[in-house]
Amino acid sequence: MIKIIVDCFGGDKSPEAQIKGGLLALKNIPDVFVIFTGDEKIIKDVLAGEEYDKERIEIVHAPEVIGCDEKPTDVIRLKKESSLMKGIMMLRRDDSISGLVSTGSTGAIVTAATLLIGRLRGVIRPAFCPVLPTMNGGVVGICDSGANVDCKADMLEQFAIMGSEYMKSTYGVEKPRVGLLNIGAEAEKGDDLHKEAYKLLEANENINFCGNMEARELLKGNFDLVVCDGFSGNVLIKSTEGACLEMLKMLKKDIFSKTMYKIGALFMKKMFDKEKEFMNYQNYGGSVLLGTCKVIVKGHGSSNEVAVAKCIEQAYKMETGKMNERVEAITGRE
Amino acid sequence: MIKIIVDCFGGDKSPEAQIKGGLLALKNIPDVFVIFTGDEKIIKDVLAGEEYDKERIEIVHAPEVIGCDEKPTDVIRLKKESSLMKGIMMLRRDDSISGLVSTGSTGAIVTAATLLIGRLRGVIRPAFCPVLPTMNGGVVGICDSGANVDCKADMLEQFAIMGSEYMKSTYGVEKPRVGLLNIGAEAEKGDDLHKEAYKLLEANENINFCGNMEARELLKGNFDLVVCDGFSGNVLIKSTEGACLEMLKMLKKDIFSKTMYKIGALFMKKMFDKEKEFMNYQNYGGSVLLGTCKVIVKGHGSSNEVAVAKCIEQAYKMETGKMNERVEAITGRE
Prior knowledge:
The structure is a homodimer. Chain A folds into two domains: 1-123 and 291-321, Isopropylmalate Dehydrogenase; 125-287, Isopropylmalate Dehydrogenase. The longest helix of chain A has 26 residues, at 230-255. In chain A, strand 1, helix 1 (16-28) and strand 2 form a beta-alpha-beta unit. Chain A starts with a strand and ends with a helix. Helix content of chain A is 46%, strand content 17%. In chain A, helix 1 (16-28) packs across helix 11 (305-320) and helix 4 runs parallel beside helix 5. Chain A is an alpha/beta fold. Chain A has a seven-stranded mixed sheet, sandwiched between helices. The interface between A and B is large, with 53 and 53 residues.
């Protein structure tokens, strides 16, 4: 049985999405066990109307709530009875628990996980790795997407190692094609950080390095993993998501502007539904934090139950795919 | 008469697009004079079939061609007879000429302009400022989009000053709303560079600073100018363009996959045409280089004649709007 903690409080649709997402994961994965942390009474109220395998859940009472503006360090110091901190402390103490899924404050999750769960042997800094769908039907991982705004070249090298093992264990990509996010395709492009990172990636035998990737290539599907510093990785994923979202909005607005367009859209309803579904990040789970001793998945703040279930599945696959052991076998040498 | 040089060689559709774009600008703007640089015979051949005001053009023979892989410094040293270098040298010597439009090598243009044309008084580094259309019908400038991969906070402050004056002079935006590209909206987000830049921008009275902007906001139209280091600015614009392009491709592919969708699309043809036109960068001209003593506009390598004419119009507006004088009035103090 793989035990995963679900932090039930934090996120726009909490705690319903978190609890129902947990139950959905129970249905989808036969050997998963879910531990819900949060206000026990509220969790029980939500569970009351649902059917599920009672042998495979546990509720851990955590009455405190984390505010939007609270500093990560304050959360760790002062909110020990919050659903996130209760979960993190259990994960730290109990070796039978594999991971934690949270849709709460990113800063608090990163800080708590790094300080209290600890890093894998040899790992300099944990990094976020969300995935996006590509136009040829696959996905592409982006590592780091914002955990580290200041990076050194050896950190980028490790992002490539961790991200590659993640794409292997969770998405079954045999030999992930790694690209370095840069302002041009040629090896000598970019600032000193990227020139140095290019050399390290090229020389590392644990990575299938395929050269620099320009931002406009992201969705084409020519790379399985993009390595970047957290600042430009954040810009990369947010601008891509933003552009897709704004285009969908424009399309919708335009369709409703004329009767003829509305008629046309009726013929194409299935197609638009498919495209909307394709771009719905809820279907792709959360952003995993790579490099910590236990599996941590950060779901989007607006995650619904499907997204939460996907996050649990990601954590499950990382654990069963022995992703952390594989990373440590590389980073932990010497 | 405003004299603008058009570098006719460089770009996928050169020299036809450059020459015909020049003639189109003559038609659109009554007091523009165009100087074509490049192989005289070829230019005359293209002009032979066209009707235009012969009093408002000049051809300057430049027989050498710049290769794709040539280093910018080699171009300056060795290709003095190329269409770009001939143009740059004329611009340097002749005060009656206002600016230059080129669709050639970005690196060569930046290097030649910086070294041979020189910077405005007080300007630390010139920066690129392309614009993108926003969903509420306006445009947003992005400065710097790639000329400077390593930036200091005072450079970002100047990008805001130059970009603001550009949006005023060329797009008639009265009080450009300036955003700082960052990984979160709060003032304390980002690395040291962005925290320091935030403070400088906030304190500068020449700028209408509206706080940090997350990458996903770019197309919404809440900002008129985004200030960023050249690396993340490059990622921002290329990922946005890339995502829009890939979505259009997906839409097209999906429409052709079923007869019913094709029928629906017939009802919506005008709508799709409008959207394609909206996202066609050819309509928005080139990326201007801000901070040099003369106006320099770098058009996209695949510019057609409409795009080239737009670039000329941009150069014209920057000159007639006295953009450089206005920038120098701020940067040149002391």
